[in-house]
């Protein structure tokens, strides 16, 4: 299942890239993410970096532990993550494009879900709504931060 959403953020590409490339910021703009900790022995940033994430993908159910790995990046252009919570696996790609002084950020999720296929259309709607909300929170945070910086 592929889900893709985009948003314009009134901040330069380097600022958006730096913020999105650090998963410890995810708790600010992704409300389902409860905590993010680097995995001991992995690089702190860049390809090969791994993080232990606690997230709650479904409201009212217990949080899940997720392995979050940085697969690849092109600074200022693209970030590729792989998420695995033991049931669902999602390849997440962020692409960034300059648009004047702002940034066009696109999030593309390629999800392999453990849920029965009959539920996938509903899940696509829910995941799409989650991504849209996250991107709006990201934009709000980064644009407000720029006003006080």
How would you characterize the overall build of this protein?
There is one protein chain. The chain is of the alpha+beta class. The protein has helices at 13-21, 26-29, 120-148; strands at residues 2-9, 33-38, 50-55, 64-74, 78-84, 89-99, 102-112. It has one domain (2-148): Alpha-D-Glucose-1,6-Bisphosphate, Chain A, domain 4 (2-Layer Sandwich). The protein contains three helices and seven strands; from the N terminus they run E-H-H-E-E-E-E-E-E-H. The protein has a seven-stranded antiparallel sheet, covered by helices on one side. A hairpin with a 2-residue loop joins strand 6 and strand 7 (102-112). The N and C termini lie far apart (39 Å).
Attribute tags:
alpha+beta, 7 strands, Alpha-D-Glucose-1,6-Bisphosphate, Chain A, domain 4, globular, 3 helices, 149 residues, 40% strand, seven-stranded antiparallel β-sheet, single chain
